[in-house]
């Protein structure tokens, strides 16, 4: 069955080397490889025109003068608006322009399905287009940002309820996201996560030498919900001759976190910044453990899933993470990793020392996590399930 899909999203890579939403890019590529006719509809960024990525057309819609088109990309729009409420004024032209672009694409491409990623406000664009293109089906995929908005802004909840009710199929990336969506409107919801964004690492083994310092690896944006400040506090209690915390990535909190580390853990914490995929793979291979000390932040946001843990598992690295959000879909305490209470530096430090002192436990957790990831988070499985959802929607 040749299925035509228009993917509607707030963010998509702007150029070939762009690191934005790499998992969504891989997902679209996998669907295209399965025979789907895939097109992307996404907002412009600083006047960016329509283009192609991996041979897939990316249709950009303009919603403001080029200098003001920065509501999306590099960081989520909710975070930008939280810092500068005036950016909410861009939401009106954003929705109007996106709705008209989606309608024009529907009339031109006649897609079987509009697949909406981040349904608020993008589901409105899809429903507007379907009013004129009746045969087109709508599939929604929920992450966490839009669900956080519904929790913080009560007027959004009834809008999301209407979106969920009128969609032909609804997907959530984790059990946590599914439960949150069902709390808004109770209907059948599929769980469909995403997989690793690194190249095929099948057969890769961890190559850390026992004589090296025990490397504790963190990878991710430096934002509040990642809980990096608690990792630094945990590092402060560890022997710098034995342990080293290696922090990959950057973000709004980078400078503040560096200042905290210089004061509390100057010998234990190393900031690596943004690094290449090759360097990141080397970090995974030499890590003693991977850690995601996520928290529920001051806005009520937390991890929707945590793809970095999947990457760590594929490299044979045991994982320590906080028991919040979608993390628990990947890490089962004592089986596929160690779970700790959020915002607890002591529990983080204890778990780190436990893994270093018990190599057999580390290996068992890493092996079991890898099996779990290969079974439930492989791109082959994810794509097969997505294709099955599409076929079922079209059949109905």
Task: Throw out a few tags for this protein.
396 residues, Rossmann fold
Explain what you see.
With 396 residues, this protein is α/β, with parallel strands linked by helices. It has 2 domains: 4-195 and 378-395, Glycogen Phosphorylase B (Rossmann fold), CATH 3.40.50.2000; 214-376, 3-Layer(aba) Sandwich (Rossmann fold). It has helices spanning 22-33, 77-83, 91-109, 119-132, 145-152, 156-166, 175-184, 228-236, 254-264, 277-285, 307-314, 345-357, 359-376, 379-395; strands spanning 4-8, 37-43, 51-53, 56-61, 113-117, 137-142, 169-172, 190-191, 214-219, 243-248, 269-273, 289-292, 319-322, 338-340. The strands form 2 sheets. An 8-stranded mixed sheet has the order 3-4-2-1-5-6-7-8, sandwiched between helices. A 6-stranded parallel sheet has the order 11-10-9-12-13-14, sandwiched between helices. α7 (175-184) links the parallel β7 and β8 (190-191). α3 (91-109) crosses α4, α4 packs across α6 (156-166) and α8 (228-236) runs parallel beside α9 (254-264). The longest helix is centred in the first third of the chain and has 19 residues, at 91-109. It starts with a strand and ends with a helix.
SSE blueprint:
Blueprint (H helix, E strand, L loop, with lengths): L3 E5 L13 H12 L3 E7 L7 E3 L2 E6 L15 H7 L7 H19 L3 E5 L1 H14 L4 E6 L2 H8 L3 H11 L2 E4 L2 H10 L5 E2 L22 E6 L8 H9 L6 E6 L5 H11 L4 E5 L3 H9 L3 E4 L14 H8 L4 E4 L15 E3 L4 H13 L1 H18 L2 H17 L1
Parallel strand pairs: 1-2, 1-5, 2-4, 5-6, 6-7, 7-8, 9-10, 9-12, 10-11, 12-13, 13-14
Antiparallel strand pairs: 3-4
Helix pairs in contact: 3-4, 4-6, 8-9, 8-12
């Amino acid at each position: 069955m040749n299925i035509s899909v228009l993917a509607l999203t707030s963010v998509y890579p702007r150029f070939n080397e762009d690191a934005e939403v790499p998992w969504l890019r891989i997902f679209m590529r996998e669907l295209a490889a399965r025979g789907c006719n895939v097109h992307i509809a996404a907002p412009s960024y600083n006047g960016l025109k329509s283009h192609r990525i991996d041979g897939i057309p990316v249709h950009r819609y303009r919603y403001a003068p080029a200098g003001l088109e920065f509501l999306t990309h590099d960081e989520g729009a909710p975070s930008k608006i939280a810092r500068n409420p005036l950016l909410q004024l861009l939401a009106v032209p954003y929705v109007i322009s996106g709705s008209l672009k989606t309608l024009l694409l529907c009339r031109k491409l006649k897609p079987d399905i509009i697949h909406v990623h981040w349904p608020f406000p993008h589901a409105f664009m899809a429903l507007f287009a379907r009013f004129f293109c009746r045969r087109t089906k709508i599939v929604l995929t929920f992450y966490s940002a839009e669900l956080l908005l519904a929790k913080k802004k009560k007027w959004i909840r009834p809008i999301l309820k209407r979106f969920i009710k009128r969609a032909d199929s609804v997907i959530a990336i984790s059990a946590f996201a599914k439960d949150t969506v069902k709390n808004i409107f109770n209907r059948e919801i599929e769980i469909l996560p995403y997989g690793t964004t690194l190249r095929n690492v099948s057969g890769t083994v961890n190559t850390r030498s026992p004589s090296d310092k025990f490397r504790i690896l963190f990878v991710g944006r430096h934002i509040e919900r990642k809980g990096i400040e608690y990792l630094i506090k945990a590092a402060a209690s560890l022997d710098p001759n034995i342990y080293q915390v290696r922090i990959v990535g950057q973000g709004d909190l980078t400078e503040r976190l560096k200042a905290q580390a210089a004061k509390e853990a100057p010998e234990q914490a190393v900031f690596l910044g943004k690094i290449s995929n090759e360097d990141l793979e080397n970090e995974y291979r030499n890590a003693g453990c991977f850690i995601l000390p996520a928290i529920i932040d001051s806005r009520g946001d937390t991890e929707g899933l945590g793809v970095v843990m999947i990457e760590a598992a594929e490299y044979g690295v045991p994982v320590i993470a906080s028991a919040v959000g979608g993390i628990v879909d990947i890490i089962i305490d004592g089986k596929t990793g160690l779970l700790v209470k959020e915002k607890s530096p002591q529990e983080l430090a204890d778990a780190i020392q436990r893994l270093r002192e018990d190599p057999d436990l580390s290996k068992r957790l890493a092996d079991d996590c890898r099996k779990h990831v290969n079974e439930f988070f492989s791109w082959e499985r994810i794509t097969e399930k997505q294709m099955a959802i599409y076929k079922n929607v079209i059949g109905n």
